[in-house]
Amino acid sequence: EVSFIDYVYIRKELEDGRDIIVYSNDLRLKAMDGILVELRQHEILDLRFPEGSQGTVIRQWIGVGGYYIPNDSMRDVLERFQNISE
Questions:
Q1: Concatenated DSSP letters for 3-68?
Q2: CA torsion angle for 64, 48, 10, 60 (degrees, to 10)?
């Protein structure tokens, strides 16, 4: 499998009712802009997020955008590409 990650963020619900979004420190993952980080099966991406004192966090969610290609599909894509290139 190959994963292509476009953005990563943490959404925090604060005690005072505010919701804030905190993006990863990795510049490639700060926006839905088509700049993708490629990960192959079993690879790890270590993410860091800025810390701050926005308030007391009640709940938080992680958001990730991108797509992945399963192994069989990847073979099909490569075969098609090779056929076009010849």
A1: EEEEEEEEEEEETTS-EEEEE-S-GGGBSSSS--EEEETT--------------EEEEEEEEEEEE
A2: 120
pLDDT of residue 72: 65
- Radius of gyration from C-alpha coordinates of the chain: 18
Q: Give the DSSP letter of residue 2.
A: E
Length, in residues, of the chain = 86
CA distance 50 to 31: 15
> What pLDDT digit, counting tens, does each position of 28-82 carry?
999 889 889 999 988 999 999 988 777 899 999 999 999 988 876 666 666 766 6
